[in-house]
Amino acid sequence: MRAGAYSPNHIGNDAAILNIAAEQLRKRGCEVNIYSEEQFNSGAVTEDIIINMCRELRSIDLLQKREDAGALVINSGYGIENCTRERMTRILLGSNIPHPDSLMVNTDEAIKDNLIKAGITRCWIKRGDFHAMHKEDVSYARHPEEAQEVLQEYFLRGIKRAVINRHLEGDLLKFYGVCDTPFFYWFFPFKSPQAKGGADKTPAGFNPDYLKSICRRAADVLDIKIYGGDAILSPEGDLQIIDFNDWPSFAPCRNEAAPYIAKCVMSAIKEHFNKKS
């Protein structure tokens, strides 16, 4: 399970999706044991198939070591590390996946001139070294002077690296997916209620198949099987991913997602043992 410190405002939702996925695996004949992230870090987990929502640095390192030693780990510890902000930004931009123009900076450097040179005025400043743990880890700045002030606050909080994303105009869109299955769910959180996989009033130019394709590409390059995130749909119909998360809570669709998560895990188990044999 994910440690509570890494489930800001989502402790119950994060626990719920893991438990319901575990129940789906039990229905398929698996023996499933549930551990806390603290138990995992203390060495209590000896199984060779590890399904996890871990986020602590110690956990990620241990997951990677277990993976290197031959265990099946979903999501991969390497994939979880890839979803930390700066690594994610570099990977998405380097893979030509639509993502806002971004600067990766030290929090003690002067960035006003660089923002002006890049033509960035309004922007979002996000801690670059890790996953967001507090709402202050993602901050909106209205102009370069304010961005400099926010960066200074990050430095004073002990955050050494930050990512600055250009602010995008448009509608926020949330998505959830499970690789190696047909499952993909999206909705506009600030519009009228949406039907799964569709919408009653979608903005002109929106193509759900294109959204699904870029999200699947992102999951592939980040090495994540169970994922979610946010995108911005511009008034012109352009889509850009602004956040990509390893195993989110699936809060609006957990009952629909859980059987597909179990299917993904079962397929990975089969492939894992076929490779061993």
Distance between the termini: 30 Å
Order of helices and strands: HHEHEHHEHEEHEEEHEEH
Compute the CA-based radius of gyration: 19 Å
Fraction of residues in helices? 25-40%
Helix vs. strand class: alpha+beta
How many individual β-strands? Answer: 10
Report the principal-axis shape. Answer: globular
Unreliable stretches (pLDDT < 50, length at least 5) are: 192-200
Strand order of the largest sheet: 3-6-4-5
Approximate strand percentage: 15-25%
- Quick check: average pLDDT? 91
Task: State the helix count.
Answer: 9
Oligomer: single chain
Overall number of structural domains? 3
Sheet with most strands: 4 strands, antiparallel
Sequence-ordered SSE layout with sheet pairings:
Blueprint: H1 11-27, H2 37-41, E1 49-51, H3 57-68, E2 72-74, H4 77-82, H5 85-94, E3 102-106, H6 112-118, E4 123-127, E5 138-141, H7 144-156, E6 161-166, E7 171-178, E8 184-187, H8 208-222, E9 226-233, E10 239-246, H9 254-276
Parallel strand pairs: 1-2
Antiparallel strand pairs: 3-6, 4-5, 4-6, 7-8, 7-9, 9-10
